[in-house]
Write a structure and sequence with these properties.
Layout lengths: L12 H8 L1 H12 L4 E6 L5 H9 L1 H5 L3 E6 L2 H9 L5 E4 L1 H8 L5 E9 L4 E5 L15 E4 L4 H12 L8 E4 L5 H6 L5 E5 L2 H8 L4 E5 L9 E6 H6 L1 H20 L1 H12 L3 H10 L1 E5 L2 H16 L9 H4 L7
Parallel strand pairs: 1-2, 1-3, 6-7, 6-8
Antiparallel strand pairs: 3-10, 4-10, 4-11, 5-8, 5-9
Helix pairs in contact: 1-5, 3-11, 3-12, 5-6, 11-12, 12-13
Length: 323
């Protein structure tokens, strides 16, 4: 299958580099893992709201688990931390999770905590002249490769006949997207929050083209734990999952209060964080919708040559830690 042209480095470059250091890192991390402390990797952005809330409100300690937080840039880096043995548990989107599961490092997906069809949005620059999905043809679109957005956008292009080089993908870290749009280096960006809103606020005249809905996918964000840690410390994993599930409940019950807490960590205005919270689906579960969404994405990534195998989700997904 041909996909949009990609002039930047290969999709799996992060995971290849990570595998080179696996032997070195796992050896030194095992001593920390054996202490029972849970080294938890997550990002400082709204898709990681339950992790932020649980850490800020003391929910982890209340549940009975000692957390060593590793706050990273995003899901790609969280997957790297997990597969190199630098973290025991990590939160991430569907694509990094599937990459981790296909990496050869035994991992378990123990919780889906967020999702929703509006997870990823396309925002165009003021001079891009993109009025419809068809108008994306011939345009330069910025996306962070290896991210959950990247996998979703590839499937979006496949569905709408935008493969075979009709769209040029520019590999770009989301923090640089506003300046790239402002300088007309790209015509549009695609990303999950806060990145689309950052562009809309920083670049006058920028606008949403569409979200990546209609793919029959929940775009699940999940908790992934190393199998080794889960088998050695199941009570720690169960406690962490409980704390995250309770934080998900807070997001649904009182998004305004949750947004105020999260905004202190992310630096994003609380009113914007609340708006994003209310646009996503927060739910602590591992049901058929989650399984089907991950299977669909895994098959697409494998079919398009971006992961070596489709992970066996019957083995990878483990609901035994759910509260």
């Amino acid at each position: 299958m041909q996909t949009p042209s990609t002039p930047s480095p290969p999709f799996l470059r992060h995971m290849v580099l990570a595998s080179l250091f696996l032997g070195l890192l796992v050896g030194c991390s095992r001593r920390e893992t054996d202490s029972g402390k849970l080294r938890f990797a997550y990002a400082r952005k709204i898709q990681y709201a339950p992790q932020i809330l649980a850490a800020e409100t003391g929910a982890f300690a209340k549940a009975g688990v000692e957390i060593e937080s590793q706050v990273l840039l995003g899901g790609i880096q969280c997957a790297e931390a997990l597969t190199t043995g630098a973290a025991d548990m990590a939160a991430m989107g569907d694509v990094p999770a599937l990459i981790a599961a296909a990496s050869g490092m035994p991992v378990k997906i123990v919780l889906r905590y967020a999702g929703g069809e509006r997870m990823h949005r396309i925002v165009a620059g003021p001079t891009a002249k993109i009025g419809s999905i068809a108008d994306l043809a011939g345009k330069r679109i910025a996306v962070q490769k290896g991210s959950s957005t990247y996998g979703a956008f590839l499937r979006f292009c496949d569905k709408h006949g935008l493969g075979q080089g009709k769209v040029t993908l520019v590999d770009l870290h989301p923090k640089h997207m506003p300046e790239a749009i402002a300088a007309n280096q790209v015509d549009a960006i695609v990303g999950s929050e806060p990145w689309p809103s950052n562009v809309e606020e920083a670049v006058p005249g920028s606008y949403e083209v569409c979200c990546l809905a209609g793919l029959g996918n929940d775009f699940p964000h999940v908790l992934v734990v190393s199998t080794r840690f889960a088998e050695a410390h199941p009570e720690q994993v169960r406690a962490a999952v409980l704390a995250i599930a309770e934080a998900v409940g807070q997001l649904n019950e009182n998004p305004a209060v949750a947004a105020a807490t999260i905004a202190k960590v992310t630096g994003v205005p609380a009113v914007r964080e609340q708006r994003i919270i209310e646009s996503l689906d927060w739910g602590a579960r591992l049901d058929d919708t989650v399984r089907d969404s991950l299977q669909q994405t895994g098959e697409f990534l494998h079919r398009s040559g971006r992961i070596p195998v489709v992970p066996d989700l019957a083995t990878v997904i483990d609901p035994s830690f759910l509260p």
